[in-house]
Amino acid sequence: MNDDQPFLSDEDKQLRDTLKALLQEHADLDASIEALGHMPIPDQLRIARLKRKKLALRDEIVKVEDRILPDIIA
Known about the structure:
Elements: H1 10-37, H2 44-68
Helix pairs in contact: 1-2
């Protein structure tokens, strides 16, 4: 058995998959915001909505990361 890789429970695997999906969605939103910003007449309302959604995703990412790596008080 390979001792280099820690045992991951089903919940840990699911959390990591969720985190990966959230990070991808966050990157996609970032690319969309960037593309909309380069248009001749940027849709400021759409950009603002995407930025709010991106911030909400960031909050969700932090929550999932905290569940994966809980704070350890030394």
